[in-house]
Amino acid sequence: MLRTRICKWIRALTFGVFILTGTLTYGQQKSITGTVVASTDGIGIPGVNVVEKGTTNGVTTDFDGNYVITVSSQDATLVFSYIGFVSQEQNVSGSTAINISLDEDVSALDEVVVVGYGTAKKSDITGSVSSVKSEELAAFPVLSAEQALQGRAAGVAVQSNNGGEPGAPIAISIRGNTSIGSSSAALVVVDGFVGGALPQPADIESIEILKDASATAIYGSRGANGVIMVTTKKGTKGRMVVEINSTYSSQAVTERIDLLNANQFASYRQAINPSYEQGPASTDWQDLIYRTGNISNHQLSFSGGSDKINYYVSGNYFKQNGVVINSAFERFSFLSNIEVQATDKLKLGFNAFANRGNKDGIQSQAGSGGSGEGDVISTAYRFAPDTPIQDENGVNTTNPVGDQFDNPFAIATESVDETTTDDYRANFYADYEIIKGLSFKTTFGFSTENRTRGRFQPSTLIGQASIQGGIASVESVKGTNILSENYLTYTTEIGKGNLTALAGYSYQKDRTERFSAASQGFLSNSLSYFALDAGSDIQTPSSSLTEREIVSLFGRLNYEYDDRYLLTFTARRDGASNFAKNNKYAFFPSGAIGWRISNEEFLKDNKTLSNLKLRASYGVTGNPSLTPYQSLANFQPIYSNVGDQQVGAVVPDLLENPDLKWESSYQTNIGLDFGLFDNRISATLDYYTIDTKDLILRNTGLIEYAGLLSDPFQNVGEINNTGFEVTLSTKNVTTENFSWTTDLNWSTNKVEVVKLIDGEDIFLDSSPGSFLQDETHILREGEPVGVFWGYEYRGVNQGTPEPGTAGYDETGAGDELFTDLNDDGVITGEDRKIIGDPNPDWIAGLNNNFRYKNFDMNVFFQASVGGDIYSYTFLELASGESNATPEVLNAWTPSNTNTNVPSAAVREKRITNRFVYDGSYVRLKNLSLGYNLPTDIVNKMGMQGVRLSLSGQNLLTFTDFPGTDPEAQYQATANSQDSQDSNVNRGFDYGSYPNIRSYTLSINLKF
Amino acid sequence: MKNFKTLGILLAFATVVGCSDLEEVPVGRLSPDGLVQSPADVQTLINGAIGNMATEAYWGRKLSLPIMLRSDMVSIGDVGTPGRRQDVDRFSMSDDNGMVTALWPRAYQVIAATNEAIAAAATLTGFPPEQIDPVTAQAHFFRAYTYYHLVRLFGEIPYIDAPVVNVEEASQIAKSSVDAVYNNIIADLELAKSQLPDTQTISALPSRATAAAFLASVYLTRGEYQLAYDEAKFVIDNEGTFNLGLAVDFQDLFDHAAQTSTNEFLLSLDFNGFSDGDTGRDYTPALTGIRANERGNIGGGWSVAVPTINVYNSWDGRDYRKAVSLDTTGIFDGVEEPFTAFPDFDSRNIQSAYIAKYTRAIGPTGTGNGRASSLNYGLMRYAEVLLIAAEALNELSPGSGEAAGYVNRVRARARGGNGSAFPADVAGGMSQDDFRDMVLEERKWELAFEFKRWYDIKRRQLGPEVFGPGSLEPQPNFDPSRDYLFPLPFDELDRNPNLAPNNPGY
Known about the structure:
The structure holds 2 protein chains of 2 kinds.
Chain A: H1 2-25, E1 30-38, E2 49-52, E3 58-60, E4 66-71, E5 77-81, E6 88-91, E7 100-102, E8 112-115, E9 118-121, E10 129-133, H2 134-137, H3 145-148, E11 156-160, E12 170-174, E13 187-190, E14 193-194, E15 204-210, H4 213-216, E16 227-232, E17 238-253, H5 262-272, H6 285-289, E18 293-305, E19 309-321, E20 328-341, E21 346-361, H7 376-382, H8 408-414, E22 416-435, E23 438-457, H9 465-468, E24 471-494, E25 497-520, E26 537-538, E27 542-561, E28 565-576, E29 585-596, H10 601-604, E30 609-623, E31 634-637, E32 641-642, E33 645-646, E34 650-654, E35 663-676, E36 681-698, E37 713-734, E38 738-755, E39 762-764, E40 777-779, E41 787-790, E42 793-796, E43 816-818, E44 833-836, E45 842-852, E46 855-865, E47 868-871, H11 872-877, E48 916-918, E49 921-932, H12 935-940, E50 945-959, H13 981-984, E51 988-989, E52 996-1006
Parallel strand pairs in A: 1-7, 13-16, 47-51
Antiparallel strand pairs in A: 1-4, 2-3, 2-5, 5-6, 8-9, 10-15, 11-12, 13-14, 15-16, 17-18, 17-52, 18-19, 19-20, 20-21, 21-22, 22-23, 23-24, 24-25, 25-26, 25-27, 27-28, 28-29, 29-30, 30-35, 31-34, 32-33, 35-36, 36-37, 37-38, 38-45, 39-40, 40-41, 41-44, 42-43, 45-46, 46-49, 47-48, 49-50, 50-52
Helix pairs in contact in A: 7-8
Chain B: H1 2-14, H2 39-53, H3 56-60, H4 64-69, E1 75-76, H5 83-89, H6 98-123, H7 129-154, H8 167-170, H9 178-195, H10 208-222, H11 225-237, E2 265-269, H12 284-288, E3 305-306, H13 309-314, H14 320-325, E4 326-327, E5 329-332, E6 335-338, H15 342-345, E7 354-355, E8 377-381, H16 382-396, H17 401-418, H18 432-446, H19 453-459, H20 463-466, H21 490-495
Helix pairs in contact in B: 2-6, 2-7, 6-7, 7-9, 9-10, 10-11, 10-16, 11-16, 16-17, 16-18
């Protein structure tokens, strides 16, 4: 239904576009053609605005710098303008061909970058800021801009919490995870709106990533995780430009797990249990659940402007059919940016954004994996291959070995898991110039996110739902966010110096309402989750409300002297309702200096060194670590049954902590920017160290006999992130017909736990519930966050006496042996140690762009090296309760003793180093070939540009990890404010959604 | 001038929103201040204590499983089950055993809810004592009941009888002696006995008889046989007033549909096939069930807690209670199979008769494998009161017909189940020692798998005998100087070093 509606909408708009362009091209008077080149190298400049002076009539140059414009009269004047170049005016005076050579604007050589509450020239920046351009974000189709950021900026790690699953949440961490118990997700600011949802990539003009304290302190208590500043596209002066982008991708799973076939499986089972009877089928479950998926993505935008108004309006439709049967994601979104110069002094603007996403999910990454809790992917590995989808009575089969759960095909095709998300944002602003140099800006914005998730398991699923007669649940979350900000900006010259001062006030309120309801026991499986009242067994409903208010004062002072010395002071004072009673207000200052050495006398005329700047900053920022009501005392309602009736019941839960405060990050940054040979080589180096103090952890040191349900929160922990970042851009070849540029970013981040409560280790567990393990990873002072914790596997008991060997007597020939670390003669919990570190040594992105005449090529590699993976998948496949990998064909038997694989048996799922793997990988993330149709052909078609491209994503992955994807994550729910999962549960793999290879065809039309 | 007008308008707009005192006013959350306004609110806290008991971390699994496994009647079936369970069974547990570290905090959470209830009741004004006291008495009862488990499992423990306000102070207290804990338990039970009503409409709430029955149990454990006898006798003499009696059919006690119609339970922990996560969910059906068993269509069990084959072999086949308590067959691929074939259908099954009390007639279940059953667990049955009276009286005056009569009531009911002549009435002229052994055996079969056996072994110090060679469950690791007590969780000793030393041997 929805899809049909969208298609209609797109068709209608497309039709409109043709009508409009038809009108515009009608009534030509005089046509002028020409090429705009740069004076330095004579190469055509794409995107130059060519406007007939005094009118709104304008065009932009194509990829090669060519333009065609129709002017109203013989003596019209054309204005050629482009950022970074000095504008030129040229009188037409009868000519039909005008070629222009633009000079670079040395003073404006810099890019302008967006910083908090303003913009700055890149050369004036004293903090650490990375920029990602729109062409990088839109290089290949992705569901969300988060994905497009992967590998694009130094120090920015992007991690999906479930591989390639359509619509899975994605975590962006900047310079490591600065927290343990709270969110480490970066703050997202979209067109000034704090906490906005990211627009889809094609609508984004640029993304700036603010990394150090000097850059982020303006966001105070929310700045510690870095800030992602998103600027959406705006219209520019000139005639309307209509752009249509369509892409289509075909997708397939790159890796599968090699498993036993039906015959091998049956003999393996018989080795464990001689009476096992081979099932009647031969089923490759991975074959059944995977398919060729696809993405289609269509984007239509209108933009343009006059002296008084500019606009950008776009619509987008995205549809992904996942590579697992029955998984899909669909989204449509709209964006509108309109700005009006109301008077000489007053500018008004309005941004609006609307987005709907529908996720048609499958059950993936089960939390327990035990009886009745299987998910599609892990069960495809585990499920017996000698079993059919349905038995002879047409009943879905369940696994004949181990815990009872449904087969993956039944789970994928019969259970329902749908999430609908609506995002709306509207933002109004007015910018008023009070006197020259002093302006006042006020913004008022509102955003809302509504999310509804419905799930249904029909009674035909045997493992669980059949017992209850079908299980249905609905959860709804409604979040609203109001933001009002007002600030003054003053710019003035003082002698050889420039001063910019900013001061402002901000008020923000967010509110989240949630409810959920569930029911079981349905007469019919056709009701899905839309008739909870029809269930015979209504489950406890729940609802909650959280509200938070933040009031802030902020200010910044920039002083630049003689183009050589730069000084920045930034501060913000936040007061927040979620801060505890005795700590309602927080102050976050930062300072930075910069020295543009290349502008000093002794370097000014140096031909080699075109730019050299040294930067240093220090400051403190906060983590939005306190959730509302976290510091208050609480009684918790619990389920209680007295006399077989549910009764009202509460228990003591939490003691008050009126002194609880936010987590603070103290960050030092030292950076160096340099450029060589007219910036044909430019580089940025940054070193940082971040001490995050007052980490909020649950104090497990509180005596348990106090009888409280929850451990209290306290500011006790400390971690450090230290790293080094390199960004290198080179223009290797720049000739008229051929150019080659390279961008490299490379970064390290070393994270270390500095302080925990009383120095006590914190043991954590991320294993699937059915594994019945308590401790899988650990937080320990002096160690990285989340290192794996377990036994050291030392091979198979050979059945010959090994006197004095610990644990030996407890095992028989063919059993696993572990190292007795404390030499006490028995294998106990004391014999565990750190067996792996999931944190990579470095991550990198390498992007190469080639252009030959009208052809261009992009080759983009992305890498993560040195992180370990713990595979619950392989642990489970070796535990004797499921299908297995062919490794078990080499299992120990009395006649096959020279092996590391224990004998076939049911074994406890102990955490050992046997299943720790090197998760390093290098991935060819994108390879694309593009072709721009020649201008004359395009013009004949009445268009400004036509581009075709063919690309492949994830074509190659180099890794030693034997699982399906080294980017695997398990139990790492991202972006959840009160979840520590994505900070500490790193590098675990369990039935992860496999990575996907795509082939993409794109077409881009510009009118 | 016009400029300033525009600016004024903008400023006015800017200040429309933005004033706040930043105070948090949580809606939909329960602040402890001023929560309790009436006796009904006190009951809400007591219900919280009951809800806290009926959780996975306590009666659902973490308490119930260890006290079953610790006994000689239940051992490990699936050898792949986690080590923490096997360690409890094999007397090899250490002070970080995952069962112990889970049940310990939960026990104290039950206690904390009762402490809050008692403290809150004391602040109530405007209600007559007859409205407040019977409710508060429940809190005293459940506090005593929870400490009774703790003191038997751990020996010396920290004793908390008021809500913890000053954490610093509470973190430094020493353990209370076993005698001191028992004195407090007895005081709470005495208070409960004096203020609880003679009967409750449901057995989930304690009555005067419940308090007396637990006093009898406590005194029996303490070896104070006169007091034990007096309390048990008080209940028996007033069985009409208290509306107590033995169920006619022993099976009814373990049948979710029939059990509430009996008047045998003095206290039950109720499950109704519904749970909120692990709250309200029992795992005993899953833990004791046969893997891959199709009977009952609950997806089979997990074969974790299974009696050794000796239990089956040594239990007289004529005893109706054996048929009720054990499952000797399962249904696999639609065919009923004997227990010797169980491992053929799942390698984690063993060749033994399985516990049937928690799988046979447990009604609707909230989730697979029988988890979240509809069964109520009898925590004190009238049969036990009769056996307490018999055991205590034998210690006071051996050879009495009265003592034999109590046992015979229990046996007569057992015979009634299948009309067999077994178990016969108690033979006359038994020596004191023989009678004592006989009652303990009777408890073993009558109360089989009902979480009583380990405590019997402990109070009578039977370990070397019942875990020795040729016993139901030989356990060479058993060490009487260590194994009658569990270790306190190691991390609790770290939190409060004044709790050290741990129990001997840990």
